[in-house]
Amino acid sequence: MTDNSDISAFPSTKKMLRKRLLTQRKALSPQDWRTKSDAICQNLAQFEWVQNAQTILVYLSDRQEPNLAHLWTHHYPHKRWGIPRCVEKKLIWHEWQPAQPQQIRPGAYGILEPVSTLPVLEANAVDLILVPAVGCDRRGFRLGYGGGFYDRLLSDSAWANIPTIGIVFEFAYLEQLTPDPWDCPLKAVCTETGIALSR
Predict the structure, then answer these.
(1) Closest Cα to residue 36, out of 11, 6, 9, 61?
(2) How, if at all, do strands 128-132 and 55-57 pair?
(3) First-last CA distance in the chain
(4) Residue 2 has what pLDDT?
(5) Residue 81 in contact with residue 119, Cβ under 8 Å?
(6) Strands 55-57 and 80-87: what pairing?
(7) What is the pLDDT of residues 116-162, one digit of tens each?
(8) What are the chain's domains?
(9) Is 116 within 8 Å of 108 (Cβ atoms)?
């Protein structure tokens, strides 16, 4: 993974930094987005945590987030996958079968979600969480979208000890973010150039 240690070029406030990184992500060409996304999937597929996990929580790409579809369509179609549904201020996780598109629909925020009738996954059934982010730093701190859904999830004692991997493109893997007191660092970060354990 490359060294994005010069963060002096980045705006200081979370709101400005989020806007800048989202603009940079949106500017990726469709070909670059697909190529980088597939490289992320390849890195994940070769990583021991993913190989050993039976039940993995993922997200469905929105706003040109890295697309993890190759992970469940090409690499590990027989693992158990879970995707989130936003309920008030919480994420509820449902077991999901990627081959059945009728199991998902747009949710309250316009993001694809599982239908509520799918089986719910509790924390004790989960081996690994792949976490979407706007940016991540080398300590595992995450810049999210501002809704706090993952912050609340990962601060819950039932979920706190499950391994987590932040998923970002390399340009959004920064040397250091300024965390808030409630931020919970992720255990590792994956980009198209590799996976790094948090410092």
Answers:
(1) 61
(2) parallel
(3) 14
(4) 55
(5) no
(6) parallel
(7) 999 999 999 999 999 999 999 999 999 998 888 999 999 999 999 99
(8) 13-197 (3.40.50.10420)
(9) no
Q: Which long-range contacts (CB under 8 A, 24 or more apart) does 184-189 make?
A: 184/151, 184/154, 184/155, 184/160, 185/139, 185/140, 185/141, 185/142, 186/131, 186/136, 186/140, 186/141, 186/142, 187/140, 187/163, 188/49, 188/140, 188/163, 188/164, 189/136, 189/138, 189/140, 189/165
Q: What's the average model confidence in pLDDT over 86-100?
A: 90
Whether this prediction's pTM lies above 0.85 is answered by yes
Please answer whether residues 129 and 162 qualify as being in contact, where contact means their C-beta atoms are separated by less than 8 angstroms.
Answer: yes
Q: 8-46 pLDDT, tens per residue? A: 344 458 889 999 999 999 999 999 999 999 999 999 999
Predicted confidence (pLDDT) per residue in 149-161, tens digit: 999 999 999 999 9
Q: How far apart are CA 185 and CA 7, in angstroms?
A: 19
82: closest CA among 124, 45, 29, 110? 124
Cα–Cα distance for residue pair 107/103, rounded to 1 Å: 12
Q: What phi and psi values does residue 75 have, to the nearest 5 degrees?
A: -90, -50
